[in-house]
Amino acid sequence: MKQLKFNHVSAGRLRPGPDNITWRIRDDKSLRVGDHVVCVDKVQANKPDTWQVAGIAAIDQISEKRLSDLSDQELEGLLMHSRAELLAASRQFYGEDVMDQTPVKIIRFTFHPHEDPGVTASEAKRRYEQLQLYADGGSRGNPGPSAAGYVLLDMDDRVIHKSGLYLGITTNNQAEYQAVKVGLTAAQQHGAHTVHVYLDSLLVVNQMNGIYKVKNRDLWPIHEALKQLVGQFKEVTFTHVPRELNRLADAAVNETLDALKN
Q1: Residues 108 and 23 both lie in one domain
Q2: CATH number of residue 27's parent domain
Q3: 75 touches 86 (CB < 8 A)
Q4: Residues 144-184: pLDDT tens digits?
Q5: Residues 107 and 138 in one domain
Q6: Tag placement on the chain: N or C end, fewer CB within 10 Å?
Q7: How far lies 29's CA from each of 35, 204, 230, in Å?
Q8: Taking the model in full, what pTM does it have?
Q9: Which residues contact 8 (CB under 8 A, 6 or more apart)?
Q10: Model confidence band, residue 117 (pLDDT cutoffs 50, 70, 90)
Q11: Is the pLDDT of residue 255 over 70?
């Protein structure tokens, strides 16, 4: 489970939505644009048992430059008044060998506050090992403007993360498959080993369970990609549910498509 750790003051400055920014030196997390990363609030830095999950960061942009080359705007976004202040802070965290020429990663992200505030990082790791995923895809026109929506819940039915993704012009079946794919990817980034997937597309459920063959060649690539992704988990189950039990994921789809009108 990838994490971005913040001291308590910095965690308190995280704001829901885009335009959040942080910096890292010698980052070994292999962060990529599109990753969903757990943000940890180090409430008391020297007491890991007090660390709490603040929310989820959806990585929007990653750039790397030398510390001396950071712009005034970037320094302002990092809440630093000068390069000297950033250098001092960097040496405090990473050691005295940090110099003006040291590469710095600037990470911009959209922050989604945790749905269950106060949960400790160690408790979150335990809870995230097994998750429920409700997924839905929709196309207005079939083919037409389409979106994927998903909701991750722990095994006590507490919502961990909800998101929607615009897919462009595609079909309803493609959108259903994409919803499962992005939802499983998010579950994997949360550290899940076992995922129970629920969706109201009987076609996708039966094809993923091997009951139906995939006759539509247009679905072959996404079906194969999804099978490979499933193979990276300890266990993934697929269960069909009626639409009324999939309302949260359906709402994420409609919210995403409705936003295109605004």
Answers
A1: yes
A2: 3.10.400.10
A3: yes
A4: 999 999 999 999 999 988 999 999 999 999 999 999 999 99
A5: no
A6: C
A7: 11, 33, 22
A8: 0.72
A9: 41, 42, 43, 44, 45
A10: low
A11: yes
CATH code where residue 153 lies: 3.30.420.10
Tally of structural domains, the chain: 2
Instruction: Mark whether 134 and 255 lie in a shared domain.
Output: yes
Per-residue tokens: 48: 């890991």
172 vs 126, more confident: 172
Domain that holds residue 152: 129-259
**CB-facing half-sphere around the CA of 190: CA atoms within 13 A:** 32
Long-range pairs of 8-16 with CB within 8 A, sequence gap ≥ 24: 8/41, 8/42, 8/43, 8/44, 8/45, 10/79, 11/39, 11/40, 11/41, 11/42, 11/54, 12/41, 13/79, 14/39, 14/54, 14/55, 14/111, 14/113, 15/111, 16/111, 16/112, 16/113
C-alpha to C-alpha distances, 212 to 71, 102, 116, 202, 232, nearest whole angstrom = 56, 55, 38, 10, 22
Tokens of 196: 């129970």
From 82, 117, 152, the end of a domain falls on 117
Would you say residue 93 lies in a domain?
yes
Which amino acid does the sequence have at 216? Answer: N
